[in-house]
Amino acid sequence: MSRLARLAGLLPLMALCLFGCAAPALTDASDDAPLALKRQGSFFVGGRDLPSEDLSSLPVISPKGTVTVDQVYVRYQVPAAQHRRPALTFIHGCCLTGKTWETTPDGRMGWDEFFLRRGHPVYVIDQAWRGRSAVNPAGVNAVKAGKRAADTLPVYVVPGHETAWQMFRFGPDYPNAFSGMQFPLESQGEFWKQMVPDWSYSLAGTNPTVPALAELAGKIGGTVLVSHSQSGIYPFQAAALDARNVQGIVAVEPSACPAPQADLRPYRGLPTLIVFGDYVAQSPYWAARLKSCRDFMQAANAAGGRVEVQVLPDLGIRGNTHMLMQDRNSLQVAQWLEAWLAQRIAMRD
Amino acid sequence: MSRLARLAGLLPLMALCLFGCAAPALTDASDDAPLALKRQGSFFVGGRDLPSEDLSSLPVISPKGTVTVDQVYVRYQVPAAQHRRPALTFIHGCCLTGKTWETTPDGRMGWDEFFLRRGHPVYVIDQAWRGRSAVNPAGVNAVKAGKRAADTLPVYVVPGHETAWQMFRFGPDYPNAFSGMQFPLESQGEFWKQMVPDWSYSLAGTNPTVPALAELAGKIGGTVLVSHSQSGIYPFQAAALDARNVQGIVAVEPSACPAPQADLRPYRGLPTLIVFGDYVAQSPYWAARLKSCRDFMQAANAAGGRVEVQVLPDLGIRGNTHMLMQDRNSLQVAQWLEAWLAQRIAMRD
């Protein structure tokens, strides 16, 4: 796609941003008002029962029995507001949990509540094998019992602060920050507490979160899937499984987009926004991902897709890191996203 | 304690139950009304930074770096209601997470929302090294890398359904249920999805959740600590660390109470309720724990304590399992507990 064509593609969104982002207040006066919920709760989607001989290495608990894995924990809140907006499902990235979308490290309102206060039912998940979604300990216990070799242990990784610093584009290298960078570094300690080890690299085939998302979308009668980073590919895979209840996809800095040569029919007519923050050109890792998402956009749109790739500095929103839902201007980005949703996603009756 | 003395001790609570439990409706009409929150969010307490060389076995993520562990995830909701009731902090048990207190497996309101709707600020945690509270993967990765022997792998256990069935007193043995048992077995699949492996048996010394609870109590200016099962001892240990902001302890079927010969001064004047469900006599494991908690009660009260041990069938509430906050009559038990809180816990100004 030529630079001109790309610029032309941006124009509607830039106008949208001028309308949305230039508003004097980033939060409504009502954001301090009591929050009225119609209902809230939590449940699981997905999951399967497995027999195991390696559930325990404690004498008092039998190693033998049935264990349930691959399920996905979902916490939801439905606003009392009468004006109906599409349900949003928030899917965190690597080495994080649903906490990603809640209160920011510096104590401000998270995206979960921002969109709830604007009339969206909000669903926040923990990926399969993460957080409140169980892992199977058998892979560890079988090695502890001497039944399997140590090199069969799961890949179970968490980046250290120093590694994450660069991956999350707080700066070029730890502890140096990019100029104008908007992550609240004074509260980084609270952010490091959000990080958890990631078992997903040991899961064969499609991540179990994917069919669970398709199930969730059906169960709640339609939703926009909002991914982050590692989970970027999941909504596309869920739509390929069953697109009937996927009303749109918002991929926040996806680690991967579908390949241009993939079957692109599931994305025909599906409103899709892929958004990246600032400093992408300074990060070879993320620059490559932005490029591959643009290649996907071009191929998908040639096949009837409605994919947009947006890079926030092109819209005049600067300083965003990979954790843009937690940056100081997180609600400015949310407000821009809310305007995009209002323009692109039709409500179902 | 003689049987007569024990009966006499029960009388005030039995009266309380007659008042509370005999009310025609277990939920207020307002339980279906919109829920008004003053504020909500999530944060962490506790946590410490550790250097590590074993954070990753993936070539693309450095194994070296700083990791933060021992922190405790806290989700909270403060009701908009003007009448002030004490804050409650809910602490789950073994092989479970904060999900314990949310929507029941059969889709009814959890204790988190029940007490919120009655004016209590509610804090729900994930124990350290569980759920959204990170574990350190170094103990697995060092073995995978051949740097440590397989038998140094963490104790990482989850009971299978068949084992849990008996531990949770659904029945004498899987799949037989106790007569009149109130756990919603038709929804057991949703309950099994709540179970996660438990790393805590590998943590040396006092569980890091304990100082985190004391920190939380201080941070929020006072709270009643409500434990379950494995976490039963934590509130007592937290009060021993710093009792200033522990307004009361409710131990639901604790796996352990403090030893009668322990220093019992921290519990002087501290309203404490230890509650067990039904079928305890049929379970040697739980019968022994009930007995040891009664021994603690006697010793603590002789030293100025205000400890009560209640067994629900003695109050006319029958059929409760170890998961009494999820049993069919969970809100009847909650209503009884609410009456206890109203009588025993003074509000602070």
What does this 3D model show about the protein?
The structure is a homodimer of 349-residue chains. Chain A has 349 residues and is an alpha/beta fold. Chain A is built from nine helices and eight strands. An eight-stranded mixed beta sheet of chain A has the order 1-2-4-3-5-6-7-8, with helices on both faces. In chain A, helix 1 crosses helix 9. Chain A is globular, with a radius of gyration of 21 Å. Chains A and B meet through strand 1, strand 2, helix 3, helix 4 and helix 5 of A and strand 1, strand 2, helix 3, helix 4 and helix 5 of B.
Helix-strand layout with pairing:
2 copies of one chain form a homodimer.
Chain A (H helix, E strand, L loop, with lengths): L2 H19 L13 E18 L12 E15 L8 E4 L19 H7 L4 E5 L11 H7 L16 H7 L20 H5 L16 H11 L3 E6 L4 H9 L4 E7 L18 E6 L7 H19 L3 E6 L18 H15 L5
Parallel strand pairs in A: 3-4, 3-5, 5-6, 6-7, 7-8
Antiparallel strand pairs in A: 1-2, 2-4
Record keyword descriptors for this entry:
homodimer; alpha/beta; 8-stranded mixed beta sheet; 349 residues
First and last CA, distance of chain A: 37 Å
Q: What's the count of strands of chain A?
A: 8
Mean pLDDT of chain A: 92
Please provide the ordered H/E string of secondary-structure elements of chain A: HEEEHEHHHHEHEEHEH
Q: Assign the structural class of chain A, choosing from mainly alpha, mainly beta, alpha/beta, alpha+beta, or little secondary structure.
A: alpha/beta
Oligomer kind: homodimer
What fraction of residues of chain A sit in β-strands?
Answer: 15-25%
Largest interface: A-B, 74 and 72 residues
Morphology call of chain A: globular
